[in-house]
From TrEMBL:
Molecular function terms from GO: triacylglycerol lipase activity
Pfam families: Abhydrolase_3
Stretches assigned to the Alpha/beta hydrolase fold-3 domain: 98-299
Record's keyword terms, sorted: Hydrolase
Protein name: Alpha/beta hydrolase
InterPro entries: AB_hydrolase_3, AB_hydrolase_fold, GDXG_lipolytic_enzyme
């Protein structure tokens, strides 16, 4: 059984709505040790020679072996500058929607790698989900990817879904995109979505806080060398500040209720904590959920890891609560 543990609510004036969850299940430990022995060395090898012709597109096809929730159907969609894919569960409500922005270090991912996770989210919320195959490094800038995610939001709005019943969700690099897409959408005059879910977010491209934290030495996937290589890659391919905007530099006021989930032992743990601080400063309703001793984006292992299954339940409950609150406000106004 996974249980909430120790810390609920603010610990000081700069950190609000923090909840810690226990970890340590046998399945989570086995997953961490397996990834540390297999995928981590491969990622480190890439970090040593990122200029080689790595088959970034091939990584996406790993997702083909992962089983989706039975009854899931998919359809291709076309956005202005990229493709997308819609996922529908067996039972689908027509009054809500999810825009999913995948992770992958702004380099990999797309149609297949996140299919299983997306199918679970779709089934839990009885909602169609559009997953954005946004433009990525090294051929495009991060700003290009943000623009594609805003286009996916326009795609959802065009279906007639009220904005307050649309949720943005993303993991890792995609967890950066959910916030930047909301900020850019507001700049373009679009209404805010009803909720944001951010799993293991990147919030800036500065390395010091990440590498100085104890979690940099305990991540089951990423090394400090990987972080340094990614930093150089971003600077090389997004040389101008407007092509790599940082969440911590943006005006976050007026954003919708936001959920942040992160592992206590991953490289991006400091980013999640800092994001919660910035949201608190901006007056954004939010919750920071810290899951002890999990791998990066552990939610993708919901079929085998109990903490991951519980995390997705928390995601569902958060979004349902946000949608219900918006509906209550709409009824009172009407």
């Amino acid at each position: 059984m996974v249980a909430k543990s120790l810390v609920t609510g603010p610990r000081n004036a700069r950190e609000s709505n923090r909840v810690e969850f226990e970890g340590g299940s046998v399945a989570s430990k086995l997953l961490a040790s397996t990834l540390s022995a297999t995928l981590k060395p491969a990622i480190h090898l890439w970090a040593l020679a990122p200029g080689l012709p790595w088959p970034y597109g091939v990584v996406d096809h790993i997702g083909r072996v992962l089983r989706s929730v039975p009854g899931t159907t998919r359809r291709s969609a076309t956005l202005r500058n990229c493709s997308a894919e819609t996922t529908r569960p067996a039972t689908t409500r027509t009054d809500r929607y999810v825009v999913y922005m995948h992770g992958g270090a702004f380099l990999v991912g797309g149609r297949y790698l996140h299919r299983q996770l997306i199918s679970r989210i779709a089934a839990a919320l009885s909602s169609e989900v559009v997953a954005v195959d946004y433009r990525m490094l090294p051929n495009h800038t991060i700003a290009d990817g943000v623009e594609d995610c805003v286009d996916a939001y326009r795609f959802a709005l065009a279906k007639g879904i009220p904005p307050e019943q649309i949720a943005f969700m993303g993991d890792s690099a995609g967890a950066y995109l959910v916030f930047m897409a909301a900020v850019v959408a507001r700049e373009q005059g679009l209404p805010m979505p009803g909720a944001i879910v951010s799993m293991a977010p990147v919030i800036d491209f500065d390395l010091h806080a990440k590498l100085d934290a104890p979690s940099a030495a305990t991540d089951a996937l990423f090394t400090k060398g990987f972080a340094r290589t990614m930093h150089r890659l971003v600077l090389d391919h997004c040389p101008m500040p407007h092509t790599r905007r940082q969440i911590v530099d943006e005006d976050l006021s007026g954003l919708p209720p936001s959920l942040i989930q992160v592992s206590s032992t991953e490289l991006l743990y400091p980013d999640a904590e800092r994001l919660a601080v910035e949201l608190a400063k901006a007056g954004v309703p939010h919750q920071l959920q810290v899951w002890l001793d999990q791998v990066h984006v552990f939610q993708a292992a919901a079929s085998i890891v109990p903490e991951a299954a519980r995390a997705l339940t928390e995601v569902t409950e958060f979004v349902e609560s946000a949608f219900a609150a918006h509906e209550a406000v709409a009824r009172s106004v009407g």
